[in-house]
Amino acid sequence: MLVAFAAYTIYKELERRLCEAGIAISPKRAAELTQTIYEISFRLPNDPEQHQIMLQMDTDQQQLYDMNY
C-alpha cells in the first residue's frame, strides 16, 4: 500500500510540474522520453577534470530537461 501511495504521489507531482511549466506532455509520456536521454562522462588523458556531454535530444526531451534548470 505504501509503495502504491508513493508512486501515485510522484505521478501527481510530475503532472503538476508539467502543467506549471506549460508542457503539454502526459506524465506517462514524460517517463518514456526520459528513458532515451543519454549523457556521456569522460576524462581526458592528463586532465583530472571529468567532462560530461548530453547527447542530442528531440524537442520534447529538451523541454523536460529545461524544466529542471
Description:
By secondary structure, the protein is of the alpha+beta class. It has one domain (2-67). The chain is built from three helices and two strands, in the order ααββα. The chain has helices at residues 2-21, 27-34, 59-67, and strands at residues 39-43, 50-54. Strands 1-2 form a two-stranded antiparallel ribbon. Strand 1 and strand 2 (50-54) form a beta hairpin. It is elongated. The protein starts with a helix and ends with a helix. 1% of the residues are buried.
Can you lay out the helices and strands and say which pair or pack?
Elements: H1 2-21, H2 27-34, E1 39-43, E2 50-54, H3 59-67
Antiparallel strand pairs: 1-2
Class of secondary structure makeup: alpha+beta
- Rg (C-alpha, Å): 16 Å
Shape: elongated
Number of domains: 1
Distance between the termini: 33 Å
Multimeric organization: single chain
Low-confidence stretches: none
**Number of strand elements:** 2
- Major β-sheet, in short? 2 strands, antiparallel
Question: In which range does the helix fraction lie?
Answer: 40-55%
Per DSSP, what share of the residues sits in E-state strands of 2 or more residues? 5-15%
Q: Which sequence of strands runs across the widest sheet?
A: 1-2
Mean pLDDT comes to 91
